[in-house]
TrEMBL record:
Family: Belongs to the enoyl-CoA hydratase/isomerase family.
Keyword flag Cell membrane: no
Reaction(s) catalysed (UniProt annotation): (3Z)-octenoyl-CoA = (2E)-octenoyl-CoA; (2E)-tetradecenoyl-CoA = (3Z)-tetradecenoyl-CoA; (3Z)-dodecenoyl-CoA = (2E)-dodecenoyl-CoA; (3Z)-decenoyl-CoA = (2E)-decenoyl-CoA
Name assigned to this protein: Enoyl-CoA delta isomerase 1, mitochondrial
Source organism of the structure: Psylliodes chrysocephalus
Amino acid sequence: MFKGICRETHNGNMVTKILKIPKFFTCIRNFSSENVLVEVNNKTNTAILRLSRPPVNGLNLEVLNEFESLLSQLEQQKVNGVIITSNKEGILTGGIDIAELQTIDQRRLKKYWTTFRDTFLKLYNTPLLTVAVINGHSPAGGCLFSTACDYRVMTRNYNIGGNETQLGLVAPIWFMDRVADLIGHRQAELAFTQGKLFSTDEAHKLGLIDEIVENTAEGLSKAQIIINSFANVPKKAREISKRFTRQQFLDKMIRDTDDDIRHFVNHIGSNETQKIIEQYMQKLKSKRF
Ligand SMILES: CCCCCCCCCCCC/C=C/CC(=O)SCCNC(=O)CCNC(=O)[C@H](O)C(C)(C)COP(=O)(O)OP(=O)(O)OC[C@H]1O[C@@H](n2cnc3c(N)ncnc32)[C@H](O)[C@@H]1OP(=O)(O)O
């Protein structure tokens, strides 16, 4: 393991961070943003994108915008693959930053949900090869974003899944569809009606993740191996095949955009749901869940 230096601006001040970088990521181009660190290995032309927003990499509007914009830059740079992981072992992301849901302002809710959907679509639809290294808990929005990747490896002893129902919320139908694509309709039905979080082993057995690894370093190496395994596959044919296999889901999601946004705004913006969210936040803070 090498140590790399990353300089970035934080609240207007330049800060220097020491990053642990596995051996194969020694020569890096760096264009990190506030909440998402990016390293591109000049040798392999592979990027690692690390969520880095303490305490739990909550997906607020800024993180989503930065993530989408960085992915666009990586597409322009035509990298060979993108590895998505967390800068903090133990938590990939706590999902949506619940503060974003604590409002009845319909304009704000609409803006948030549009951005959330667009970011998911960007990741789902990118021609780049994407591998999620799930190196920590990955509830709700975290699980959703990892399902957008081409391949998922996960470290042991963490949880992943759609727990919305447990919180008294309803997950979006396209999250349910995506999970059903991976684990089958019956298992998805059981999982979402229960708001089930799966252990790494359970997720692997069901097909929600593809492989289990012991730690982040092994996850990154494994992800690089997966990316390398595509080296001899004709690029254009792979990209079109990816688009074709994802087209049906994509068409449905885009066709249902207006309904989905309206449901979200009505569901989250209702006083009843606001009470539920407030109670959940209190539980979370007092660790009574
Ligand atoms: C009727 C018709 C309906 C039609 C419906 C239509 C469609 C509607 C769509 C609705 C969409 C709703 C979708 C929701 C998706 C989501 O992503 S919701 C978020 C779900 N996330 C969670 O439940 C995760 C909760 N967090 C945890 O489980 C744990 O925090 C953790 C495992 C991630 C980490 O644990 P640990 O390391 O022990 O840290 P903590 O001490 O628990 O947390 C530290 C700190 O962070 C705060 N926090 C944690 N998670 C979040 C979060 N998601 N958002 C904001 N803040 C969070 C936590 O409170 C602690 O704060 P303090 O230090 O106490 O201040």
